[in-house]
Amino acid sequence: MKRWILLFGLALVAGIAAFAITRRCVNRPMPDEMTWLRDEFALTPTQAAVIEQLNTAYEPVCADHCQRIGAARRRLHTLETSSNPPASELAAAQAAWQALCDECTTATRAHLDAVAAQMSPEQSKRYLELVGPKLTRRDPGKPFGLR
Amino acid sequence: MNDDDSLSPLLKTWRHQPPEARDFNRTVWSRLQANTTSKEPGAFGRLLHFPIVGVRWAMPVAASFALLLSLAAGSGAALAYESLTHDDRMAAEYARSIDPLQMSAPHSHP
């Protein structure tokens, strides 16, 4: 009985070690997003070029949103952590945060749809199903725990 | 008086006294042990054992198979996990790269 327990323990340890070592060894490097899109959704060179243009056009929009989100978050954080924040100012900051989140979500979704529109219908559906759920599902009440 | 007559009383009184073997027990045990460990398994036994080089010890087949199976299962599970989650992880990475709310989240990756 004691031997079987020992054997079970050894086998368990061996299995876990094999899992960890194999995962470490086969951990494929993540390709850049465009390479992944091209390979995963079998993009033609034309489709890839258009999507690349869309990405390039979206970059400044995204950067602007990031900057504004950072500023809005800091403002809201300052107000919420202050001992006695003015109610009107806090409400205004929260409203601004909501509006900014809506704007960002809409822009991101529009970009996603624009990229999907360049793909074949089948790949487009797969793309939206795969990436769509990964976008932020915003909880309006929690600006600091967005995911 | 002939020889038989003189030998008979001598034989009746004679007692054999062998010299004392001090390490008798140890010798017996060491011989028993040597006999046990050096015993070669039969043809079937040799097939079912994986002798460890340099160690006079062999692992029973059940233990060997269990360990091999466990190693194979662990590696297989890792490969399957990697394969199954690769697209999902890549999609999450891509979503993060286009979603400013995720990008600027306090705990987001750079």
Question: How would you characterize this protein structure?
Answer:
The complex is a heterodimer of chains A (147) and B (110). By secondary structure, chain A is an all-alpha fold. Chain A has two domains: 1-30; 32-134, Four Helix Bundle (Hemerythrin (Met), subunit A), CATH 1.20.120.1490. Chain A is 76% helix and 0% strand. Residues 143-147 of chain A have low confidence and may be disordered. Chain B starts with a helix and ends in a 7-residue tail after the last helix. Chain B has 110 residues and is mainly α. The radius of gyration of chain B is 38 Å and the shape is rod-shaped. The A-B interface holds A 7-8, 10-12, 14-23, 26-28, 30-31, 33, 36-37, 40, 55, 58, 62, 65-66, 69-70, 73, 101, 104-105, 107-108, 111-112, 130-131, 134-136, 138, 144, 146-147 and B 62-63, 66-67, 69-75, 77-79, 81-82, 86-107.
First CA to last CA of chain A: what distance? 49 Å
Level-2 CATH architecture of the largest domain in chain A = Up-down Bundle
Number of helices of chain A: 5
Main β-sheet description of chain A: none
* Largest β sheet strand count, sense and barrel closure of chain B: 2 strands, antiparallel
Q: State the order of secondary-structure elements of chain A, H for helix, E for strand.
A: HHHHH
What proportion strand of chain A? under 5%
Average of per-residue pLDDT values of chain B: 75
The percent of residues in helical segments of chain B reads 55-70%
Total helices of chain B: the number is: 5
Q: Evaluate the radius of gyration of chain A.
A: 23 Å
Q: Any idea what the shape of chain B is?
A: rod-shaped
Largest contact between chains? A-B, 48 and 38 residues
Average pLDDT of chain A works out at: 84
